[in-house]
Amino acid sequence: MTYSQNLTLPALTAEQARRLIERSGRIPLFAHAYAFHLNFRCNRIGVEELLHFAGDHRLQGIKIHLDDGESLSLRHCDDGRLAALQLLAQRQGLEVHLEVSSTDSAELREAVRIARLLAATSIRCYPRYAGRVSEIMAWTVRDLGLLSTLDPHGQFRFTLEQHEDLKGDELVRIVEAVGNPNLKLLFDFANMLNAWEQPLDALRRMAPHISDVHIKDARVVSERGGWGHRACRSGDGELPMARLLLELLLLGDDEPQVLAYGLEEEVDYYAPPLRFAAEAPDPWIPYRAFSETELAPAADLEGLLARELQDARDQLDHVRGLLRQLRAHAEHWL
Fold first, then answer.
1. Domain range for residue 49?
2. Where does the UniProt annotation place the signal sequence (predicted)?
């Protein structure tokens, strides 16, 4: 199997065209903290600035990890600061979505605690175990079976992200095995590559359960019989961004199925292959640390920090340009 971009926009029925025009005009875009990863790591910006960015650019909310900002992160906030952040988000009419990089019960419990204080509406997670795929799936089902205990009133939407190791059908089997109506899938534009899966194939397999999205672009890196990906500026990579947005916007008959699109520009983030063309039926997945963009020792830090801010603004412009392209495509079929 060779990587395919699938750039062609498909023919639409009149009903699909009308749906696409209406939904592209009110797409729920969210600022994502990873687009400002280095600025958060260096404490140049914090949660307040991310909220202001979202408000200034007419976005619907923010997606932020509990650990973004190191010692100044949400995990280290006292209740007073969390209350102030909740008020700031409320004043700007912004939703807050939290993210953790584990399905461990203690980590999910901490996320729920902070989410309640922030009046957040969604919590993302993903498994980060070392083991056979079958073991990782079983452990994840076990972990997520506790969601009804952690959130007995169904206050939050929990999303399981496809994060470089599991394929789309494996994630669907986890969600269906857990059987919690508040557990959905988060579709990332590039992460399926590392599991030896094409973007559109993964989307179609995951489609019935997708509620959230991470938008980014990347170049495909072929190595050791698998695919890695190196994230890049949106529009400079090999992902079929317009086609993916079209398919996602069309999900849901009467109402849009996808409730949040995070703008996760990740320039220079690299993820190696974890699944391979010639792998065994139940392959071993190695342990992985938290996602982080490596910084070269001789890097111009000040230049990178400034460029990152501009890249985030440029991604928003690029995505809005893609939405205009989709609207024009839809109008052609009416």
1. 17-332
2. none
